[in-house]
What does this fold into?
Amino acid sequence: MSATIVGWGMAVPEQIWTNAHLESMVDTTDAWIVSRTGIRQRRIADDGDTTFSLGLDAATRALAQAGLSAADVDMVIVATLTPETPMPATANLIQDAIGARSAGAFDLNAACAGFTYGLEIGRALIDAGSAQTVLVIGSETMSRVVDWTDRSTCVLFGDGAGAVVMQGSATGGIRGNSLGSDGSGAPLLHIPAGGSKLPASMETVRDRLHLLSMNGRAVYKFAVKATVRAAAVAMARAGWQPTDLDLFIPHQANLRIIDAVANELRLPDERVIVNADVYGNTSSASIPIALCEAVDQGRVNQGDRLVLVGFGAGLSWAAVAVEWTAPVTPSDGSASGAGATVPRQSASAARRLP
Ligand code: ACO
It folds into this structure.
């Protein structure tokens, strides 16, 4: 028995911040951001959007897409590094809001690898017989932890949520995985204060220690290596070669990282999903959002072999190899919450960096 994805949904805030908007906030240019990252715009939560509200919308859409009700759900997993509150977990709030009265619920923090960690945990729960239906949500409001005075990080991130429903499957589904951690890299990408080490104080707020801090160059090098290695291990465990792959869905941190990984794995553009150009880095939400868009664009078919890879703070990484089993009907994207007005380009055009 394995586990497979039977429903999917996404939600992003209405508000779009282009690179031109960021030019008015920090000393940067559209040309710098596009050439270093490929990002052209991102969605930013307004006062009404939170990690809970975005995650709830994505979860509701995923359940509807699966044709299931909240009563069917046995476990709610929310991958997030920007929870609604430190306590209780955002998963508890979503479990209650959807009315999943017989479900357990917990949050999972593996930063940008959180959603793929969640998929593997969902698979294991189903495989062990502990759950029949698992809701895995990646939801983030990165704009609430980004330092909007730091040009080296604030241009990278955006807000959003994506969710999938998982159930058991005799054929297909998750065929391989690779989960990893290298905590020695913790200081490379972190939010220093707000936990046990440095609880909130006047000083931590004054020194901006509740905001994300990153060594971009070191994280870049780690990201390329970890993504290639995790994808290779997950494919090997599934018994696949890179040439067997129909679609590669990497964490959408940066187009240069995605290009470098695709080159190493010798994957052509048409087999790589890219939407960082319109959403930026939405951390644990980026892979489920990219998956929803790929399905809506008709790029996923029954029997396709997909590899999803997340990487990020921790340092942590997680890859899963999935044989897609669900019937798919491409939509115009509006049903998934992508919004009909998003000005965007094709993935291959987005990948052509200047
Ligand atoms: N606009 C203009 N100039 C800038 C900006 C900006 N927004 N940001 C930095 N610069 C300047 C720097 O000050 C520096 O100037 P200097 O040479 O005068 O000192 C110059 O640009 C080069 O800076 P670098 O940091 O060396 O630029 P680099 O080419 O490495 O690109 C980037 C930076 C885009 C952050 C890159 O390192 C990267 O993509 N790293 C990976 C980041 C990432 O993906 N993180 C997320 C992981 S997922 C998670 O868990 C959250």
In short: Residues 174-340 form a domain with the Peroxisomal Thiolase; Chain A, domain 1 fold (CATH 3.40.47.10). The radius of gyration is 19 Å. The chain has two domains: 2-172, 174-340.
